[in-house]
């Protein structure tokens, strides 16, 4: 399985705190953290040519992980269309945290993907609401993060095909924080935690969820659907 | 309830057969056919200024019905964005037949919305698979249309929130032909039948489904969600 | 619309506090609280003959509201089967709070319906996660209850067809507290709040949700499905 | 992965035709047909002690496959309860064809599971409506069976969590023929084809679907949910 971890990779250069938490970038921390047998992992980022997401790279990617925040607007529309096409063809997509506002996620969802937020070091408790789901494999009843940015409902997304996690925050809010979708032949998993100023992507349980997500989002190799004008399989009778 | 029936209104001018079936246009037939107490119905079409969908008209519309086919590309993107915004704010949307390929439906779905099709006068039998759904109110086990264009799976849409109808065609195909979605505060209903060369929108049961759909898609008057930076409702502790 | 409010009606006789909050019983408070034009409301309770749920009463009920807690085991199986049959035929069912463990809810769900709970006067904040749903009509972003029994995940139910509310509790838990299901031709709505020692069913917003739920769960008058051996609608060819 | 194939195993003894198609029983054909590396397969049937489903066998089963038809009523309720408990604990369950009326399936669904049927050698075409689903791995656009018993809508089941297949029949009907559900920690897959008088379980594509289903239904090893009275995770304040 070939995984590409994409990161905006800007906060790391502008904010000392972020750099100290993620000296190899958020992409580096995730790539290292989810490494295991059977995963071939590379990274890509915004300031590379074509954002590091050339046709060749995408053709060679089974699952793409996406982290972005301050520069969603700088992602070129033609690259977004290219990623979108690959998802519909079967590439898995894991969208993390502030990626909820990325062009690719909004294009796949068809809604604003807006939400409430607060940077105030809320405690987050991510409850498993579907213990039968492979993305929850190996977890306990919840994941506790001592401090995170708060995201609160209403989260303007389509009702998820499967709701795996719901978050509790100290400040009084809840959030649907683990949501799966199918789009075309591809699978999409949105996972909430991961604000850049907290060491969330060093948390073993968070990394396990991302790893589980990658396994779950792997492409299915069925027949490529054929669309358009179709001959009848049974006699229809004379055309009017 | 204020309903706007939108029609591309082009086939009616180019094709004698279509004109003879729908002398007042497809929009006219639908507007007349669904009329009942409590519905205030107007029509709009592509070649009007702003496609007849001005800010004022949309602000005054509870449910919009959409039929388009040969001129999807001529619908201006800014009008599509305007309709999209209104759906997310709560306006209901009924998308009919070849509207599956309209810009507004594709934007709301996030997929290609592609499908198989055939013009060969297949018989269509639209089976009710959810008899508990208000959109199926007053129907029998199925609606039979003696001749229609065939649409066949795979239909490249997100899994519907609710699947109300599945079609059978003589030529050997099936199709998810009644699908509901929620997007933002709005409700969307896709209903398959209605090729322009058949008198489908004169069929009493088809009209009943559209009428039921309008009732179902009516806006809900809850609080408008507030997004963005949110003060805590409970003490969070000092910000880091 | 004919509504029957069913209550176990036992705590009211054993506990002074409950009696003082609900002098006319929980059923009385709900019946009074949801009253409005177009609703014809009656009550029934456990210690009546046939638990007040005779064939005649059920045949005359469009939506049944169910509150039970300490005496689930005393509800006779044949009455449960009778209610079950009526739901599948189209009667709406609103299951409240500790009704999660009622025989009828478990029979409709097929799971244990177990959960975490605590009586410690947690504050509950019931967040609307689907503002497009008619059950959320007229609400703000959330309902706040200053003190309630806590119910926490994991809640062992099938994934709801629609998730309308998610609760936050002071003690650190979340709960899927507004869940809809379709079973046969009937609609089922589970709504969490309502422990007997709190005045929850005097809360205007809670009552509004129940009233909205009744409207939503109203029977749909489609054709009664016919099952069993079916003649072909099209020529099949000679039987092998 | 440990698989148990359960069969009623009665038609094979009463009907020469069935015996000639399945000389080792339907269970034998399935066990042989799905065999592959990594699957440890055993069989069990109705007339064994405890129907071959002892506590030990079930404890040693990851996925149970179920075929039954003429003797649903002879399956003991306590064995059904035992299987039910194991599904909720995480054992996968694949229910085939006439198993729609088995006690275990009805108990998990909460509905009658009734349907239309006809034995007239209809052709069946099983269309893939979710090409992203692992159960459809390796298939083309549809599976064609030259002759099968017809099952038609309305099928009285809860709306499936995922709809993978829809069948077309010569005689004019459609059927939701591949449906997934989650119940407790277990996964359930209903797959339609397999009437005893046709060689359906010798069809390579049908066997592939069952094999895919087994892989999909494998238990997830998350924490076992804990229910009941729960201590607060955060300070709640003094109990009233």
Describe what this molecule looks like in 3D.
Chains A, B, C, D: Pfam families: ThuA. Chains A, B, C, D: Residues 2-217 form the ThuA-like domain. Chains A, B, C, D: It comes from Paenibacillus antri. The structure is a homotetramer of 240-residue chains. By secondary structure, chain A is of the alpha/beta class. The first copy, chain A, has a domain at 2-110 and 177-217: Class I glutamine amidotransferase (GATase) domain (Rossmann fold). Helices cover 24% and strands 30% of the residues of chain A. Chain A has seven helices and ten strands. Chain A has helices spanning 11-14, 16-21, 25-33, 55-59, 77-89, 103-109, 204-217, and strands at residues 2-7, 40-45, 63-67, 92-96, 116-128, 142-152, 162-169, 174-183, 186-191, 228-229. The first copy, chain A, has a nine-stranded mixed β-sheet with strand order 2-1-3-4-9-8-7-5-6. In chain A, α5 links the parallel β3 and β4. In chain A, α5 crosses α6. Chains in contact: A-B, A-C, A-D, B-C, B-D, C-D. The A-C interface holds A 125, 127-131, 141, 152-155, 159, 162-163, 166-169, 172-174, 176 and C 125, 127-131, 141, 152-155, 159, 162-163, 166-169, 172-174, 176. β5 of chain A pairs parallel with β10 of chain B, so a sheet runs across the interface.
């Amino acid at each position: 399985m070939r995984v590409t971890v994409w990161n905006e990779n800007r906060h790391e250069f502008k904010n000392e705190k972020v750099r100290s938490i993620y000296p190899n970038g958020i992409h580096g921390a995730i790539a290292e953290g989810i490494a295991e047998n059977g995963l071939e992992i590379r990274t890509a980022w915004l300031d590379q040519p074509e954002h590091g997401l050339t046709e060749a790279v995408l053709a060679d990617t089974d699952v793409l992980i996406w982290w972005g925040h301050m520069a969603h607007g700088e992602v070129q529309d033609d690259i977004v269309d290219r990623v979108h096409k690959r998802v519909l063809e079967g590439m898995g997509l894991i969208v993390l945290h502030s990626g909820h506002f990325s062009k690719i996620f909004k294009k796949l969802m068809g809604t604003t993907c807006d939400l409430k937020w607060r940077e105030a070091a809320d405690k987050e408790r991510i409850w498993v609401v579907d213990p039968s789901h492979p993305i929850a494999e190996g977890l306990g009843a919840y994941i506790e993060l001592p401090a995170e940015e708060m995201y609160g409902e209403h989260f303007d997304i389509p009702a998820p095909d499967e709701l795996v996690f719901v978050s509790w925050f100290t400040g009084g809010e809840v959030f649907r924080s683990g949501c799966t979708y199918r789009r075309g032949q591809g699978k999409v998993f949105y996972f909430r935690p991961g604000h850049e100023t907290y060491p969330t992507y060093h948390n073993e349980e968070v990394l396990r969820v991302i790893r589980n997500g990658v396994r779950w989002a792997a492409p299915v190799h069925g027949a490529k659907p054929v669309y358009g004008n179709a001959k009848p399989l049974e006699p229809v009778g004379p055309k009017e």
